[in-house]
Amino acid sequence: MNRNNFNNNSYDNGYDNYNNYNSYNGYGVNTYNASGVTLADFSRRVYGWMAAGLSITFILAFAIQSVLYANPELLVQFFPVYMVSVVLELIMVIALGFFVYKLPSTVSLILFLVYSVCNGINLAPSLMLAGADKAIWAFAATALLFGAFSIYGIITKRDLTKLRPILLIGLFVLIIFAVLGLFFHMPALDLGISLLGIVIFVGFTAYDTQKIKKGYEYFSGDGEMLKKASINIALELYLDFINLFLYILRLFARNR
Question: In angstroms, what is the C-alpha Rg of the chain?
């Protein structure tokens, strides 16, 4: 996350790194309940980890923002902490994106929670720039949009994996526009980036939500793999929420 202090947009959040479930042979779609974990249990675990990560991130971000806003002289001391957090965040998202199925589930969970802490530190300047009032409204709008499209991902009968190439192309276009936005400060371009980012990440929200059932179907024969899958999907949904929030915040704070 906080790839830009909300003026620049970057990585693909590991969507490319969620390897085909088929690469884990032996856990087929007919192994329901073989691990003693139901789909409902698995879903609760995914959303539970996601909610824990988001709670850590936003509580910390709003707390730091409040302190910095009241004591701007602390910005100088905060900057080294921010830079270290950015580096740690990048390392951990790469580790989770590529090695989540190879690491013990406990280690993956710890990395995810530490990543949430780093994200909270890195998100604080964006909240400060936008203003706490706009950040609160942006959070509420994000929760509504995320909830609506997550529900859609659960109830739809359509196979949303077909959206993946379109979403990745859109993400690539978004990155190009964001880079242009660094050099050409045009209100229309800034508005377009915000709207395109929102569209892309509500799409990813529905797409990643559908992975809950698919992940359960492929890994339900192995309790440890289910734990790892729940952390990985929770991370992807967490990133969807964070990125969606940043683009909505950017839209709300365009005049700041």
Answer: 18
